User: What shape does this take?
Amino acid sequence: MKILMVCLGNICRSPLAEGILKNKVEQQQLGWAVDSAGTGAWHVGQQPDPRSRAVAQKHGLDINKQRARQFTTGDLEEFDFVFAMDQSNYSNILSLATTPQQKEKVHLILEFTGAEDHNVPDPYWDDNGFEQVYQMLDKACSRLLKIVTEKVS
Ligand code: 4NP
Assistant: This one.
């Protein structure tokens, strides 16, 4: 199983989602591959935002080794599931999908949580938003791990 987390810059939300899901996958010894990417190229090669690194560290996760990369059309072939952080990321990814099989791989990460708003807010401009984003993603990753596990078993 190969899972890709996608946001805009790949420095705030999707690196956290990658770190959170990787940790759960390791705890359950599932052997899944988890990666992240951004639809934009501004931060390619950079470490996650210091505020994402700090909130990850607060919860016992080390995401310091991650480096931002841009989402490519090849990712829609390579990965089994692609989780977008918000509607804008979702639309951008879908616009690159060329087959029904590729489109089926793409989901909003909050789709399965029962949340009314399916957008993970972009915390880039809000220093105080990172803990809330962490909590949303932690819940979403637990849900999607269960759903994907059930789907493939
Ligand atoms: P992310 O947050 O998509 O969660 O990584 C952002 C990071 C950078 C920018 C926007 C959003 N930016 O405009 O540079």
Summary: Residues 5 and 36 are 4 Å apart (CA to CA).
